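User
Take a look at the entry that follows and flag anything odd:
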Amino acid sequence: MTERPEAPRVSAIRPYVITRGRSESEGEPLSWESLVMTAETAFPAALQPEHLAILEHCEGLISVGEVAAHLGQPPSVTQVLLSDLLGWGLIVTRPPIPPAERTDVTMLRKVLHGLESCL
């Protein structure tokens, strides 16, 4: 008899309950690529389980999208929860790294052609 893989656990708590009815974060919403990390402060004992779960995952730099994936919650819910933590001073954020400036690719093409001619 084969074992069935364990089904992912889905929270029975609705997202609007988790965010206390809020659908948008206060202030400027964090982009999916923004990096978050826990601050060097003690956590209050009276946090929601979702806030605590975020803080557990944010011990190193992690993106907002990755936090949402770990929580299994929609990104909009995660952004509201992260906004709470940011307002309370429990996390710090870094803006996403901007895309690199377009560089002249002619040198790269010459290198590629040179390597191809060696084959």
